[in-house]
Specification:
heterodimer, A: about 220 residues, Glutaredoxin, five-stranded mixed sheet, globular, B: about 150 residues, mainly alpha, two-stranded antiparallel sheet, 5 helices, about 70% helix
Chain lengths: ~220, ~150
């Protein structure tokens, strides 16, 4: 056994300091999502903070998409079904809610924030499409900065200076965290995750086959 | 080789390896709590609310235990904690494998569901097993070179 004495005090000080690091760390992890945050126009809390389209339709199929703008498989889903979904939205045939997850890292968070800013300008889908079309081959490569996102917004047809400010100051970062917390509560463990009328689709058969996807969406209308 | 002479150095090596792995594993997770919560949920063992709580707490506990091991304080208790953690991880990965889930262990950040052919369960289990054996050795021989706990003992 080691001799006890002055050594013991050092020992307790070290244990105390390490315990403090752990407690403070846990405290900050658990409180990161609780700050008050601005909500984008279309991102009402009633629908899990999603950016929603055609919420007022009656009896239409409800599609919930959980996505991350940096996720390559989301890009694939987008390439398979995105155009059709957006036609259906424009034709007021279906309700669609976009839940923007950001667990792939800092650039996902910036992009989700920018998408919320674009929603305020009524250009969510335009920026959404543009970001997927220009997805980096590698996550968090340094490509998507507030500066680039502002330029992307301009390319998507946004002219208001409020958008640039919103992107730059990270107006909706708190909201991005709220969406992430909501996804955690709803047990969303992957992107993309698709729900139609609240029921999760089959990842093997219904995500990347446009016929199967369109069929299951349309079958859920009343 | 004289084991009595070697043992304290093995303990030091074990502390640095196990402690280092724990600190790195924890550090890589604390910056992305959403992902570490997802990693815990994806094992489909715990109720969602508890899995989410664990995803926030566990990385910090790993960092804490790792720091104590590196500094050489409360080595025995930290090692008991680490050994328990490794056996729980192994059990969790084995059940995921047995049930045919397709997940990443989320050991060093990451985690969640992966494509069916992309799992690496065996590799993950072997790594955790190696760390568990290291922890067991430290429980048996906790007093090694360059630890605060031993600084006054000659």
């Amino acid at each position: 056994m080691a001799k006890q004495g002055g050594d013991k005090i050092t020992r307790y000080i070290v244990i105390g300091m390490v315990a403090l690091v752990v407690i403070v760390g846990v405290f900050f992890s658990m409180n990161s999502g609780s700050k008050k945050s601005a909500l984008p126009v279309a991102g009402e809390s009633a629908n899990g903070y999603a950016i929603s389209f055609n919420s007022d339709l009656k009896g239409a199929p409800v599609v919930d998409i959980w996505e991350d703008f940096q996720c390559p498989v989301c890009q694939r889903f987008e390439g398979t079904n995105g155009a059709w979904l957006q036609q259906q939205i424009a034709a007021k045939k279906i309700k669609v809610s976009f839940h923007l997850l950001s667990f792939l890292g800092p650039e996902s968070i910036l992009m989700a924030n920018a998408a919320a800013c674009a929603a305020d300008e009524n250009k969510f889908l335009e920026l959404h499409n543009l970001m997927y079309a220009n997805q980096s081959a590698k996550e968090n490569s340094g490509f998507w900065t507030p500066d680039i996102l502002t330029k992307a917004g301009t390319a998507a047809g946004i002219t208001s200076p409020a958008f640039a400010a919103c992107v730059k100051e990270g107006k909706y970062l708190g909201w991005v965290q709220k969406v992430a917390d909501d996804g955690a509560k709803k047990n969303v463990n992957s992107t993309p995750t698709l729900f139609v009328n609240g029921k999760e689709l089959n990842r093997q058969t219904q995500y990347y086959d446009p016929k199967a996807f369109e069929a299951v969406v349309l079958a859920n209308g009343k | 080789m004289n084991f009595a002479k070697l043992a304290p150095w093995l303990t030091l090596a074990g502390r640095l390896v196990l402690g280092g792995v724990l600190v790195v594993a924890g550090y890589l997770k604390v910056g992305n709590t959403a992902k570490s919560q997802m990693a815990v949920r994806a094992y489909e063992v715990l109720p969602i609310s508890i899995a989410n709580l664990l995803g926030e707490i566990l990385p910090w506990l790993e960092i804490g235990a790792g720091l104590l091991l590196i500094l050489g304080v409360a080595v025995k208790w930290s090692s008991i904690f680490a050994a328990a953690l490794m056996f729980i991880f192994i059990a969790a990965i084995v059940q995921a494998w047995a049930r045919g889930l397709s997940i990443d262990c989320g050991c060093f950040g990451g985690g969640g569901q992966v494509a069916a052919g992309k799992t690496r369960y065996l590799e993950e289990i072997l790594r955790d097993l190696g760390l568990a054996i290291t922890a067991l050795y430290l429980i048996r021989y906790p007093l090694g070179r360059f630890s605060i706990e031993r600084s006054s003992a000659k």
